[in-house]
Amino acid sequence: MNFVEELTWRGMIHQMMPGTEEQLKKEMTTAYLGIDPTADSLHIGHLVGVMMLKHFQRSGHKPIALIGGATGMIGDPSMKSQERKLLDEETLRHNQEAIRAQLAKFLDFDSDAPNAAEMVNNYDWMKNFSFLDFIRDVGKHITVNYMMAKDSVKKRLSGESREGMSFTEFSYQLCQGYDFLHLFKEKGCRLQLGGSDQWGNITTGTELIRRTVGGEAFALTCPLITKADGGKFGKTESGNVWLDPRYTSPYKFYQFWLNVSDDDAAKYIKIFTELTREEIDALVAEQAENPGARPLQKRLAKEITTMVHSAEEYEAAVEASQILFSNKAADILHRIDETTLLQVFEGVPTFEVSRQDIEDGIKLADLLVDKAAVFPSKGELRKLAQGGGVMINKEKIADAYASATTDMLLNDRYIIVQKGKKNYYLLIAK
Q1: Which of 39, 89, 327, 415 counts the highest number of beta carbons within 10 A?
Q2: Selected catalytic residue, list 236, 350, 356, 386
Q3: Which pLDDT does position 79 carry in this prediction?
Q4: What is the dihedral of CA 84, 86, 90, 93, to 10 degrees?
Q5: Which of 15, 23, 58, 84 is catalytic?
Q6: How many domains does the chain have?
Q7: In the annotation, is 84 catalytic?
Q8: E-assigned strands of 89-152?
Q9: Could you tell me if 210 and 256 lie in one domain?
């Protein structure tokens, strides 16, 4: 597989330094991509870079994931208007281990193959570097004029930013440049991958290699992912879409991909899956014939949820998504976990009720009218129940004066009440 050709048809190349493709054709090449360890989980904004590393390894080359421990303690100014919070070492190491575990789902770290992936942390070689040594051995090779010409710096020093730019941040591109030099010398790394906003920092690295050791290194960046409507990719109303299920459940993760627009689905399925060109073309044709069936979104959601979580979590997310429509919904409701249950019914009216009342066998009419105002009157409840229009946990209730039981409690504390076809209510027993 040709790495550049593969990324080209997938729409994943923004800029590439001349000679890059020739280098990759010539021999197995080592490339690195930097990841900012500001949290103990990657989010989907990181996935483009991660997929670049994955395709790189699939093409027979050696990927290095660089955790920016030192640079994470500084903060990258690229395309940002404010400085970021700095990390302590303990937090840094914790985040590093968590990120490695996530990357292991995409990259082969553990085999004895010559192109097995590696993870490095620039803190390990920067922590003992004295300031004087750095400005003498690294700083003298790159002029301020050269650094000032970079877009990331110009933007912060222009009228667009009221904050200005600290010396700490200004030094960032030198630090990142030194990373490339270090990996070039220690690991034979000839290529740096990154987002298009990193081009200035990456080319500083290639220039540093040229000026200090006379070496030749290369750069390749991917476009920053956008949504068809111009909105920011990977953000929802509740914030980032994370890979760690503690922050974004597999159900929410699956739903994010399932609900992208047709245009975005056609773009994302090339970027975030390993599906072949032929498979994707077939799905695009199927989508054009029957947009309502949404084959692109369904396959995208399947591939990426399975890759990030597991096939089992994907199946569970699909099952949970069908609760509102499935004829097996009652059974599913009794099996799904609390987090997923609450997410499926997010936004529905909620009532707190007494657990003791339920244990005492309170009549449903009293529970759903007096204790929780699901129905305005017992007469309306009775009439609707007789017509088959009332459900408890997706099971029809014919007798409005039947007793409530603790068996109705999902996850030992929730009851889902459905009034008519579309009106849902959540009772929480306390």
Answers
A1: 415
A2: 236
A3: 46
A4: 50
A5: 84
A6: 3
A7: yes
A8: 118-121
A9: no
Residue 232 designated active-site: yes
Closest C-alpha to 32, from 143, 122, 132, 144: 122
User: Does any domain span residue 247?
Assistant: yes
106 and 192 housed in the same domain: yes
Identify any residues that bridge with 261 across adjacent strands, giving them in sequence order.
none
Query: Are 40 and 134 members of one domain?
Result: yes
CATH number at residue 352: 3.10.290.10
8 labelled catalytic = no
80 is catalytic: yes
Residue 332 belongs to a domain: no
- Of the residues 222, 252, 275, the one at which a domain ends: 222
pLDDT at 26: 96
Produce one character per residue of 253-273: b if its CB has 16 or more CB atoms within 10 Å, e if not.
bbbbbbebeeebbbbbbbbbb
Residue 302, domain extent: 235-321
Catalytic residue, candidates 100, 141, 235, 378: 235
The reply to whether 236 belongs to the active site is yes
* CATH number of the structural domain spanning residue 245: 1.10.240.10
Q: Which of 100, 105, 137, 197 is catalytic?
A: 197
Q: Compute φ and ψ for 234, nearest 5 degrees.
A: 85, 0
- Cα dihedral 85→91→96→99 (10° resolution): -80
289 and 378 share one domain = no
pLDDT reported for residue 400: 92
List 30's β-bridge partners, or say none. Answer: 62, 189
Contacts of 329 (CB under 8 A, 6+ apart): 322, 323, 394
Whether residue 304 lies inside any domain: the answer is yes
Catalytic site residue 182? Answer: no
Residue numbers in the chain where pLDDT is lower than 50: 79, 81-83
Same domain, 29 and 123: yes
Check residue 159 and give its pLDDT.
61
Q: What is the pLDDT of residue 228?
A: 84
Q: With pLDDT > 90 as the criterion, what percentage of the chain qualifies?
A: 70
